[in-house]
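Q: My labmate handed me this sequence with no annotations at all. I'd like to see what the chain might look like in three dimensions before we decide whether it's worth expressing. Could you predict it?
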Amino acid sequence: MNTFILSKKFLMFISIFILSACKTGEVTGNNTPVIQASYSFQELSFSNIDLSPGVNTGVIEIKKSNGLIVDVEYTIFVPQHIEGEKVPLVFGLHGRGQSSLHLVSQYLTPALGDLGGIIFGFDAPEDSDWLDSSSVSMVKEIIDMSIENWPIDEDKIVLTGYSMGGTGTWNIMTKYPNIFAAAIPVASTPQPWVEVPSNKVPLYVIHPENDDYFLLSDIEVAVKDLIDRNALIEFRVIPDTAHEEIYASIPYLYETIDWLNTVIWPE
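A: Here is what I predict for the chain of 267 residues:
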């Protein structure tokens, strides 16, 4: 076995080990806080996002309708790429009790770094979630700005998230089905937050068998409905795994790279 393959397996093992010590904690569901003020994205702060190769962190600014400026932390993975080449964009939505730093650096980058795309996530402002209309509109604004300012292939935009981020994935891909080449919700269901999930976005659904926050039986119903509506969908169940075991889904998420490259945007 060559050294490159051994190194990749070693890195994945280390990532899984780290994640096992950094579980997301108790899941409290998707009870959206009442947000008294809407947000507007400060485009000027977008230009300060660090696009040097590797995992970078920083702050973007949003302005509330009452005039107050709120800092929102972001984390971005930028691959080595050839100047002039356009790359995929993976937009990640964190779970409740999780941060974009944890999601991108310890979960999405180990799983999807080999896709060769930019991976981006930001913290839902003021402890809101991905069902809140202000957070949803910010995702759309940032994707639009990414296409305009980064070397993004707009035919290769993927939305993904775990737990609360998974429900946000169902929600946002249904609101904006024409943006995404694919969506990868993990450990979540659309019910009761999304009455009729879009069947226009190809889906790769990953779910823990023993998830007691988002029951396997619920996601099976949602998947069957999508199949009946002719959606392009793959469904993977992680055996003997509970909701909190986010690290167990890394190998399953890694397998989506082949699905994306051969099914969604084949050469």
